[in-house]
Amino acid sequence: MSLPSNLNPDEASPPWLNKGDNSWQLTAATLVGLQSVSGLVILYGSIVKKKWAVNSAFMVLYAFAAVLVCWVGWGYRMAFGDKFIHFLRMPNISLDAQYLIEQAFLGYLPNATMIYFQFVFAAITLILVAGALLGRMNFLAWMLFVPLWLTFSYTITAYSIWCLEGWLSKKSIIDYSGGYVIHLSSGVGPRTTKDKERFPPNNIMLMLAGAGLLWMGWTGFNGGDPYTVSTDASLVVLNTHVCTATSLLTWLMLDIIFFGKPSVIGATQGMITGLVCITSTAGVVQGWAAILMGMMSGSIPWYTMMVLHKKIGLLKQVNDTMAVFHTHVVASSLGGILTGLFVVPKLNRLFYMVDNWQHYIGFFYGLHTGHTTAGFKQLGIQLLGIVFVVLLNIFTTSVICLLISLIIPLRLAEDELQTGDDAIHGEEAYALWGDGENYESKLNSIYEEFPPPSKGGEVQMNQLA
């Protein structure tokens, strides 16, 4: 049986390359990239005060570019390269053409595709970290923080959980698309206790546009993780959106019941918690489990944010501009635990390609099938993963911030905190005058009229003078 000419293997398309899988993987990666440099640029730039719009959006853009350079320079090989030490692979560049066109470790794709796909996940992790720092961190300190945190925190977590040789991977931890590696990592770290002020959005319509891009981009975020165009990939996409919609509606109903108004910001937070919660387990649970997870991700983080945050002294110390602690730490931990309860053995076999009842079995299915010990073990591994990521990131983030503070202040100066974008970048998001000039720049004299007189008016005034 002969293949169509465009499917015949050749030097550029070797027999191991699956063109359909490769096409989807590049598309999925681009969707994840759009979550960052479109979705989160817009979301961050609009959900903060007007004076922080430029700084917040630019933190995203800078991180995206910086992570890519670091990723191909050494980061990818530290997470997925050759053996080095227990928690890390060997640092090495990923720019050699021969290496980039070789078969990746999962078989159907070239290394170049795998590097690109893993890069957009690394980038969005740093960008989510930025969500807790908006309007507070010195931008020059952020420029140092990004490559350091990528190198000494993200790569360790990615290797431990996602690399086939990682210690948690060998223990059969389930982290389908990054509930641990991305969302739990991005939400853990020390916070300053200052600047605990209300942060009203400067543009709710743009905030919703950014949130929409983030939601739709999750089709690639979760849907690309089977690394193949499979039935599992289709299940992933549907489960992701079902859980997210349920979470948004749950959060919305709680806001209406307890506060009397349907909050748009609250619905957005509920959307995010749903996306984060389902990420650990999107392709290995039933649809009804996705509904239950959405109900819990829309209610438990709501409770920690709206109730416990105001009552517990430790949570009161969390100064977190975008509520990343609740939307990511709480939601991702919840997702990891529910993974240990709900994952289906058959779906795990489709994804992990293993047929071993001692691994990848949810606690409830273990009880149902008589494999209770295996179910308990999986739940324990999920909890172990949460503890590891939390402790690792508290330690590494603290050390990195301490080192940076020896070179440059971590926090913005008081005058910069007061002024915002104009003091930091010399630019502002919204012009209040023609030709992009600000209202204040026109009032450089107490004798200047507002609005300025017309040209004819100026002539008349000169003649009177």
UniProtKB/TrEMBL annotation:
GO terms for molecular function: ammonium channel activity. Its main location: membrane. It is found in: Membrane. InterPro entries: Ammonium/urea_transptr, Ammonium_transpt, NH4_transpt_AmtB-like_dom. Keywords: Membrane, Transmembrane, Transmembrane helix. The chain crosses the membrane at residues 24-45, 52-74, 115-134, 141-161, 173-192, 204-221, 275-303, 323-344, 383-408. Pfam families: Ammonium_transp. It comes from the Eukaryota. Residues 24-430 form the Ammonium transporter AmtB-like domain. The keyword Transmembrane applies. GO terms for cellular component: plasma membrane. It is a multi-pass membrane protein. Belongs to the ammonia transporter channel (TC 1.A.11.2) family. PANTHER family: AMMONIUM TRANSPORTER (PTHR43029:SF11), AMMONIUM TRANSPORTER MEP2 (PTHR43029). This is Ammonium transporter AmtB-like domain-containing protein. The lineage of its organism: Eukaryota, Viridiplantae, Streptophyta, Embryophyta, Tracheophyta.
